[in-house]
Amino acid sequence: RTAAPARDPKDLHASLASLAAYDSEAAGKFLNVEAAKAKEELNAAGYKRVHEFEVYNGLDWSFDGTVEVDEYDAAHLWLREADSRAILAFRGSDTQKNLRNVRDSTTCSMYG
Length: 112
Description:
This protein is an alpha+beta fold. The chain contains three helices and three strands; from the N terminus they run ααβββα. Strands 1-2-3 form a three-stranded antiparallel beta sheet, with helices on one face. A hairpin with a 4-residue loop joins strand 2 and strand 3. The radius of gyration is 17 Å and the shape is elongated.
């Protein structure tokens, strides 16, 4: 019997693409370093970031609270040409204002 071919780690690639999206100034130095590592791993797996979609959200304090920055939400499209696999990864909560929303226990009705 021959060994089964190694499975493509799709979940890992999706996680790396999500982390790579945190390459913004707003995300801060720590996340920027980790985002750069994720980009390297994706590139090594054959992926290239082919498009960025950004929405400007004004000024806010960075994720680490050290500097006021222009804040953008974003989606990054990654493509691996060898098998036409694509990943669309999103960046959202990367500022102090976003973190306040995440930590807020206020509830709201979203339906009806």
